[in-house]
Amino acid sequence: MKKLIGLLVALVLLASCNNANSDKKSEGNESKAASITAAGATFPLPFYNLSFKNYTKGTGILLTYGGIGSGGGIRSLKDKVVDFGATDAFLNAEKEADMPAEIVHIPTCIGAVVIAFNLPGLEDLKLSNQNLEDIFMGLITNWDDSRLQTSNPGVSLPDIELTVVHRSDGSGTTYIFSDFMSKISTSWEAEVGRGKSLKWPVGLGAKGNPGVAGTIQQTKGSVGYIGSEFAFAQKISFAQVENSAGEFILPSLESISAAAKGDIPEDTKVMLTNSSDPEAYPISGFTWLILYKEQSYDGRSKVQAEETVKFLNWIIDRDAQALAQQVNYAPLPDKVVENARQILGEIVFKGEKLLLQ
Amino acid sequence: MFKSEKITKIILYASSALIVLVSAGIVLSLMNGSIPAFKEFGLKFIISNDWNPTEGKENYGALPFIAGTVITSFIAIIICLPLAFSTSLFIGEYYRGTRLAGIVGTMVDMLAGIPSIVYGLWGFYVLRPLIVDLGLSAQGYGIFTAGIILAIMIIPYATSISTEIIMMVSSELKEGAYSLGATRKDVIFSVIIPNARSGIFTSYILAFGRALGETMAVTMLIGNTNLIPRGFFDTGNTMASVIANQFGEADGLKLSALITIGLLLFVITGIINGIGKLIIKRM
Prior knowledge:
The complex is a heterodimer of chains A (about 350) and B (about 280).
Chain A: H1 2-31, E1 35-40, H2 45-59, E2 62-67, H3 70-78, E3 84-87, H4 93-97, E4 103-117, E5 126-127, H5 129-136, H6 146-151, E6 163-167, H7 172-184, H8 186-191, E7 204-206, H9 208-218, E8 222-227, H10 228-234, E9 240-242, E10 248-249, H11 253-257, E11 284-292, H12 302-315, H13 318-326, H14 334-345, E12 348-349, E13 352-353
Parallel strand pairs in A: 1-2, 1-3, 5-9, 6-7, 6-8
Antiparallel strand pairs in A: 3-11, 4-8, 4-11, 9-10, 12-13
Chain B: H1 4-41, H2 44-47, E1 51-52, E2 59-60, H3 63-94, H4 99-113, H5 116-133, H6 143-168, H7 171-179, H8 184-213, H9 216-222, H10 239-246, H11 252-282
Helix pairs in contact in B: 1-11, 3-4, 3-6, 3-8, 4-6, 5-6, 5-9, 6-8, 6-9, 7-8, 8-11, 10-11
């Protein structure tokens, strides 16, 4: 009995100790200049982790990022618990109207979705738009199908059952992939459509990029889609995909970046999929950070707002864009950086511009 | 100072009250979260097999997951039955009290202590390739693979309870049978089984309850296809694994649909455990 009481007292003490510590910590942060919190998309997570860490090292400003998914990022900004959110799909007019105040989108880098496959002894594979539709709608079930053979003259495709692998969790990767599929295939658009998770006509699901990549690497005859940043780091085989100019393009940082060469609207709110540029890899997309245009809300200090904008101005700049390439994302073309800077210039604190051009 | 008697009482009351509060809180918040989905779909939520999260076409029916959960659990219990029964006879009757029975018993208990994710990994790297090599399915995922893993996971639960029950059969009855010239097989089938019947049955019901809620290992092996499985080696999805998979990015109606699935699973598991307890009481 005595032992039990002793243990209980010790536990209570321990718990209160912890509280006291964390109280001190948060006080310490407030007295400093600023600490910036953000949350959202997992697609650009490696880039954000690296760039946030470097920025903290250089400036001493504490940055934290929670990779909780695009939906969570939008919700966190809506609840005003973060300084900015991150999302892989831009908010449409309806969703923007749902936010408590006007928001802006800042693109940070370009990612892509690759079509990975596992065919023993085969590394080069071309997939036409029609092939992709047939595969992911479940119309092609074996690799020696004549429709695949037509796209790959001179290649002997094996007689192996074709297994489609897709994401089982909701994901921006799925959104970009399904957006591309909806653009190239009317039957896909009608029957499946766009979304972070879908009603799949065929195939099996695996969790996250690592899950899909692992399943493909372990399963002969499988094909699926993976975020390019993950695929490039994994050295998995991926297909050349037909773009809107009819060229077969292998995903690379250059061909992904080329997807943003065309006309980009001033607010950068556009899906880059199926770009008209003949050198562009067609399944590419921006990823954005979102924040309120009027930064004076919920008693935020002006310093906090200034530091937030300063950081965003840094992440679209050359140094940070070089970091993006280190972790296999394509950098923003100069024109888009210009656009993004313009948008940052519109952010105000009590009507006063925060970024001096 | 309090008397230690009083302190003990307070601690006991407080912790029991806390547990009741927590379970009530879980049920209440599940019910609260499931209201939007029930309002939108009503009973159709349980009988519809259409799970479509695409914006504009949103429709949630839980039948594929209910089917997946029940089918994998049945496969598991069918595989588990002969194995757990033989093992419990081995430990509780044939080699009762010997060192060999002790070793086997400890091994079975150890199976219960292995984390779900480890079973999942073993299934992914060992069992799944085996199923592909045997030519049972092209990729090795599916309800059969998940069912086998589940069977291994629930064997310890069924075995240890059955063993206890078998050991409880009075030795006078058995000795009486032996003295009448019965063989060991006769004793098992004419004395032990009739006496321990309901207890053994309960152990399988409780094991079945365990199988229903198992998540991680199943998610890794079932293939996560949101359709009703059409064959033994087809892929599918279970209630627990669809929640684990889709909770992260879910919001609005989808979040409510997932919470409703959680509530359904809670209710089903509760009913199964209730039946088990009822049978034990009747013994």
